[in-house]
Structures are given as structure tokens and as C-alpha cells.
Write a structure and sequence with these properties.
The protein is α+β, with helices and mostly antiparallel strands. The chain folds into two domains: 39 residues; 113 residues, 3-layer Sandwich (Rieske Iron-sulfur Protein). The protein is built from one helix and ten strands; from the N terminus they run αββββββββββ. The protein has a six-stranded antiparallel sheet. Strand 3 and strand 4 form a beta hairpin. It is elongated and about 100 Å long. It starts with 6 loop residues before the first helix and ends with a strand. The structure holds FE2/S2 (inorganic) cluster. The site of FE2/S2 (inorganic) cluster has 11 residues, from loops.
């Protein structure tokens, strides 16, 4: 045995080494968890399932909603996604936002508004959009926003971000 190494210094070194190993074993998973939470911005890539494709009646926009959980750093929040889905053939879909482009009120589909055809009406300031979301009248500055749509295995997904 090395005469410079005392029992006390050997035990001190061994305890420090064991403490270091324990700290590393406990700290790495916690650090990984914390870094992962902070880096995450969403639990989805923006695609949200909103309906079964066969639940949308061809020729008439259908209001669909879904709840999405989004992670922004430490904060998890649930938001409601809503869209009017349109299809003519049950295979190809369009999705229009139900948020008015004037000041953000919710529009509703009503019959007979635009030349006897259905249109989207905003009750806040009498904004009016046609069935394709184009501006008809009122203070609205732009058409209704369109979302990307995809159909997969009979389900309709919209991308809202
Ligand atoms: S918010 Fe829709 S017309 Fe003003």
C-alpha cells in the first residue's frame, strides 16, 4: 500500500466518487426531462383530426371542432380548433376558418344570404362571406382563412399552424 494514502483520504475519495456517480445517475434523467419540456413547442406537427370523411355532407359546409393540446415551453394549454369542411365528392375537402377576418368573431353558415345561396354571416358588424369564404359585404378586409386539409384512412385532418 502507498504510504502517502491514509485510510481517511482513501475513504474520503471513495465517498466523493460514489456521490458523484449517484448525482450523475439522478441528474441526467431530470436534465433530459427538463430540456425536452423546454424545447417542445407542440405535441403535434399542426395536423389535427377533425372528422370522419363520411360524416361531411357533400355540397354543404359542415362545422367541425377538435381540441388540441399545445406545449409552449413549460406551459401546456388546450385550444379549440374549428373549421367548416366542404366537399363535393366525399373524397376531396376544403377547410375554412370560422373566424371573421375583421375582428375575430365567429361566423355561422346561414341559408339564403348571398343571392339566395348559403353564406357565412358575422354577427358582430354584419360581415358577409360567400360559401367559398370570399368577402361579400361589411367591414371584413379579407376572405376567410383556408386551412390545409388531408384525408387519411377515412379521417379528415386540418393543419392550422
Ligand atoms: S368581427 Fe366580423 S364583421 Fe367585424
Amino acid at each position: 500500500m502507498n504510504p502517502d494514502v491514509t485510510r481517511r483520504s482513501f475513504l474520503s475519495g471513495a465517498i466523493a466518487g460514489i456521490a458523484g456517480v449517484v448525482a450523475t445517475l439522478l441528474g441526467l434523467p431530470a436534465a433530459r426531462f427538463l430540456m425536452g419540456r423546454a424545447a417542445a413547442t407542440s405535441n403535434t406537427d399542426g395536423w389535427v383530426r377533425v372528422a370522419a370523411a363520411d360524416s361531411v355532407v357533400p355540397g354543404r359546409p359542415t362545422l367541425v371542432t377538435a381540441t388540441v393540446e399545445k406545449q409552449q415551453g413549460w406551459v401546456a394549454a388546450q385550444t379549440q380548433v374549428a373549421a367548416y369542411l366542404k366537399t363535393e365528392d366525399g373524397a376531396h375537402f376544403e377547410a375554412l376558418s370560422n373566424v371573421c377576418t375583421h375582428l375575430g368573431c365567429r361566423v355561422t353558415l346561414q341559408d339564403g344570404l348571398v343571392g339566395g345561396n348559403p353564406g357565412f354571416f358575422c354577427p358582430c358588424h354584419d360581415g358577409l362571406f360567400d360559401i367559398d369564404g370570399a368577402v361579400v359585404s361589411g367591414p371584413v378586409p379579407a376572405p376567410l382563412e383556408r386551412f390545409e386539409v388531408m384525408v387519411e384512412k377515412g379521417d379528415v385532418f386540418v393543419r392550422t399552424i
